Amino acid sequence: MFFTYLRRELRRRRKAALVVALGLALGIGLVITVDSVSSGMDQAQGKVLKSLYGLGTDMTVTKAAPASGTGSTTRPKFDFDANSSGTSQSSDRVMVQGFQTLSSSVVSTVGKQKDVAGAVGGLNLQVLKINGTFTQGQFQQRQGSSSGGGFPGGGGSSSTPQGEVKGGGAQFDANSYTLYGVDVSDLSMGPLTSSKITSGSTFTAADANAKVMVADSAYAKQNKLKVGSTVTVKGTKYKVIGIATADSGDAAANLYLPLKQAQTLSSSASKITTVYVKASDSQQISTVKSEIQHNISGTTVTTSADLASTVSGSLSTASSLATNVGKWLSIAVLIAAFLVAGLLTSSAVSRRVREFGTLKALGWKSGRVTRQVMGEALVNGLIGGALGIALGLAGAFAVTEISPTLSAQLGSSASTGGGQGGPGGGAPGGFGGGARQAASKTLDVALSAPVSVGTIVLAVGLALGGGLIAGTFGGWRASRLRPADALRRVE
Amino acid sequence: MYQLSGVTKRYRRGKTNVDALRGIDLTIADGDQLVIQGPTGGGKSTLLQMLGALDRPTSGVIEFDGTDLAKLSEARLTKVRSENIGFIFQSFNLIPTLNAQENVETALVPMGVRPADRRARAAAALESVGLGERLTHLPSELSGGQQQRVAIARALVKEPKVLLADEPTGNLDEGTRDDIMALLEGLWRDRGLTFILVTHDSTIAKRAPRLATLRKGTLTVRESSRT
C-alpha cells in the first residue's frame, strides 16, 4: 500500500513533483560542477607545482642568491683572438643559476632529520655559449697621399701614407640554455620526475660518472637532438640517452646530466643548489620546515603550500572564483531549493488535509501518515538528485570539453630563484634572464573538471537531505493534523 | 455500547466561545439505530465525532463499551477507531489516486492485515455493496452513488461494531439516496451493528426507529413506535 499510494500520488502531482525535483537538481548540479571545477583547479595548480618540484617532493631547501651589486657574484669573461681573422671561435661558460650553492653534506644533514623520509640534491646551471668570427678590415690608401712606398713607416718619404681601414668586424652569436644536475642514485624526487621519458631511457645509478644527458623534448626538437646525439659543453661531449617530455609542457631544464658531471662542469665540486625533501608524514611538513630552517641557517625552505600561495594569473583568479563565488552560489541555490521543496511539500499536505484526516479517522497512526509524506518527499529528492547528477556531469563534461586555458604565474617572491637576478645581470642578451624566468614562471594549463566518486556520493547525500528536509516540513504538518479538524474542513 | 453523561464541547471562534454541545446525556445500546437531526450548526457532526473517537469533549463522559473515550490517549483512540468504528462521510472522502479496491484496503492497513488478505476482503466488501465489477476503477470513474458504496464497503470491511454516517446521502439524488439508505439499513439488520446516522433529510428521519434532535447543542430524543 505504501508504494502504491506513493507512486500514484507522485504521478497525480507530477508538476509539483517536477518543480521540486528540478529545484533540487539545479542546486545539486551546481554543486557537482563547482566541485569538479575546483578539483580541476587543484589538479591544474598541482601540475604547475609539479613542474617545479616533480613528484614526491614536499619541500625544497635553497639559499637565495645575493642581491646584484653586492660584488659577490662574478660576471663571465670571454676571451677571443681578434687577430685570427675569419676563423670561427667559440667559448662557453657554465654558471650556477639563480641560487647560492650549498654543500652536498646538507643533503645528508636534512636526510637524517626527524620526520624526513628522503632528501636528494640537485644543481641548477646555466650555460652561455658565444661563438662567431672576427674579420680584419683592409687598409686602403688615399690617392696622392704617398709618393712611394706603400707601407706605413716604409721610409723613403717624409710623409706617412694616408688611408683608412675598410670592412672587417665581428659576428658573434650568444646562446643560453639550462642544465640540471640530477642525483642519479635517487631518481624518486627532483624535477626530472615531472617529465616522462618518451624516447630512450633515463639515468641509472651507474651513470654517476658517465658523460650522458637527458634532453627536454622541446629543447631537443628546437636543436634537432635525438637519442644518440652529442652535446658539447665546455669541450666535453655528452651523449643524449633519453628524451623527456614535461607533464605540464614546461620543463625544469633544457638538459639533465648526472650531478657529478654538473659539479665538474661548473667547478662546483660537492656543491648543490637545491635539496628536495620528502616528509614521512604530510602532517609534519611545517615541523620539518622549521627544523631545517633551524639546523641549516640562511636557507629558504619552500613547501607546496608556500609555492601555491604565490600562484597568480587567471588560474588563481578562476580558482578563487570557484572557491568563493561558486561555493556560496551553490550553497545559496541549495538552500533555496531545499526551502522551495519544503514549502511545496508543506503546501501539498495542506491541500490533502481531508485525505489525511480520513486516513486518520480510519485508524492510520500519525507516524504512518508522516512516513507516507516523507516517502514521497524522499523519492522527489532522489529524482532531483538523479537529474542533478546528470546536470552536474553534463556541466563538468562541458568544462572538460571546452578545456579553457588558464595561465598560472608563480610569483618571484617564491624562493625558487628569488628573482634577485642571476650572475652577470648586465651581460648581453639578458644574461640574468634565465634566472628571472625560473623565479617568475608562467605556465598555461588546460582546465578539466574531473567528477570523483566522492562528489557523486555528496550529490546523493544532498538529494536525500533535500528530500528529508522537504519531508520533515510536510510530515510535521501532517502529524499535527487532528482528524476531527481535517474532516471539518470544507474544500 | 455508548453511555454519554453531561458531554459538553466548547470551541473558541475568534474572541468568542461557541458551545457546540451542552450537557448531552444519551444511551445507545448494541445494535441500535439512531438518527440525529437538527439545523446546520446545531452540533450534529460534533456529536458524531465524539462518538467516533475523533475528538474529545470539553467535559463529561463518553463511555464506549465501558471505556471513557475522553480519557484515552491519542494512540488508544486511534486503535478504537481502527478496530471498532466505521465512518461514512457526506463527500465520500475517497483517496482520489487509489482505485475502489485499494480505497477499501486503506481501512485494513492499520489493523496489520496481510496484503493478500486485504485484497480478498476488500473485493468481497465491494461485492457485497454491488461493486464487484468496479474493483479497479478510480473514484473519478465512478458515479456519486458508486463512490458512496465504495465508502460503505470501506467502513464495513473491518467488521466494526459501530457504523457512523455523516449525511451519507447529502450529495446524492433522490433515487440514489433511497438505494444507499436501503443498502445501509439492510447491512444494519444483517450484521447487527450499531448504526448512528446524521441527516438533514426528513424522509429518512421519519423512518428512523429512534430520532435525536440537536438544537443549539441541546439534545432531545424521540423513540418511534415503529421499533
If you had to describe this structure to a student in words, what would you say it looks like?
The complex is a heterodimer of chains A (491) and B (227). Chain A is of the alpha+beta class and 491 residues long. Chain A folds into 2 domains: 2-48 and 314-488, no CATH class; 60-136 and 162-300, no CATH class. Helix content of chain A is 43%, strand content 24%. Chain A contains 13 helices and 19 strands. In chain A, strands 1, 2, 3, 5, 8, 9, 10, 11, 12, 13, 15 and 16 form a 12-stranded mixed beta sheet that branches. In chain A, a hairpin with a 2-residue loop joins strand 11 (230-233) and strand 12. In chain A, helix 2 packs antiparallel against helix 12. In chain A, 44% of the residues are buried. The model of chain A is unreliable at 147-157 and 412-439 (pLDDT under 50). Chain B is built from 7 helices and 10 strands. In chain B, a hairpin with a 2-residue loop joins strand 4 (59-64) and strand 5. Chain B has a single domain, classed as P-loop containing nucleotide triphosphate hydrolases (Rossmann fold), CATH 3.40.50. The model of chain B has no long low-confidence stretch (mean pLDDT 89). Chain B starts with a strand and ends with a strand. Chain B has helices at 44-51, 74-84, 100-105, 115-128, 144-156, 174-191, 202-207; strands at residues 2-13, 16-28, 33-37, 59-64, 67-68, 85-88, 162-166, 194-198, 210-215, 218-223. Chain A binds chain B through residues 1, 4-5, 8-9, 11-12, 354-355, 357-366, 368, 482-484, 487-488, and chain B through 45, 49, 52, 54-55, 74-75, 78-79, 81-83, 87, 89, 93, 95-98, 102, 105-107, 109-111, 115, 118, 154.
